[in-house]
Amino acid sequence: MTFTNYYFIRPTNKRNYMKSQIKISILMAVYNTNFTYIKRAIDSVLNQDFQNFELIIIDDGSKENNRELLLDCVEKNEDKLIYIRHSNRGQSESINRGVLNCVGEYITILDSDDEYKPNHLSACLLAIHNYDLICSKSATIVDDIKDFYIPDKNDLTKLIHLDNSVLFGTLFGRKKVFSRINFRSGFAADADFYEKAKLNFRVKKADLRTYIYYRNIPTSICSSIKSKNFSTQSTNDEF
Asked: In the structure, what pLDDT confidence band is assigned to residue 155 with cuts at 50, 70 and 90?
C-alpha cells in the first residue's frame, strides 16, 4: 500500500514515544467533522483513567475550516496527540495509515463523532486477557428505538441489532492483528476485518459498553445507507 501527499506531526519528546513505553494507540479518522464532536472525542480520550496511550488523528483531506482549531488542540496536548493529514481516501484507508505510524502494543479506534467512557481503555485491557482481538458492545445514543438497528451487511434492505454487529470503535487488539489485516473500503469494513481476524487470531465478543456510539447524527454513513435502502419493518438478528 502506497500513500503520498500527506504530512505528519508527532511530538518531539522521544522518551515518551519509545515503542516499549506506549501501551495503546488510538486511531481517529476525521473528515469534515464538526469540531464540537472532534473536541468531545479528544477530551474523552484525554480523560481516561488509563493514560499510557497515543491518539493519532488522521485528517482525511477535510475541506471544512476545522484545521486551525484541531491543530491548536494538538499543540496543547502534544505529549499525547499526533496529527496526520493526507488527501481524501475514506475512513478505512485513513485507519490503515494510522496503523503504519503507531507504536502502541495495542490498537483501537475512535470515530470522530463518538466518545469513550472514562474507563474504556482500562476495561478493554482487562477484557482482552489472552485474546488477540476483542469486539465490544456499545452504549448507544439514539433519538428513536429504531436506531438500535443498522443495515445488514449481507442484505442492505434488512436490519440487525447493533449488539449483533461490529463497529470500528469497538475493536481493540494487539498491533500484530492490525498490521496483518488491512481494512478494505466500503460499508461493513469493520465486520469484514473481524471475520478475517477470526481465521488466524484468538478473538472474542466482549460484554462491555464503554464505547459511546452516537446514532442520532443523520450525516453518518450508516444513517445514509439505512435511509436509502431500508424498505420494510422486518429485522434480521443473525449476524
From this structure: confident
Task: DSSP letter for 183, please.
Answer: P
Residue 91 counted as domain residue? yes
CA distances (Å), origin 165, targets 13, 107, 138, 236 = 39, 19, 10, 11
Q: Is residue 142 part of a domain?
A: yes
The C-alpha cell of 209 is what?
459498553
For residue 236, tell me if it sits in a domain.
no
Measured in degrees and rounded to the nearest 5, phi and psi for residue 184 equal: -80, 165
pLDDT in tens, 55-80: 999 999 999 878 899 999 999 999 99
Please name the residues in contact with 75: beta carbons below 8 A apart, sequence gap of 6 or more: none
- pTM of the complete model: 0.83
Helices 35-46, 67-76: axis angle to 10 degrees equals: 10
> What's the rounded Cα separation, in Å, for the pair 42 and 57?
9
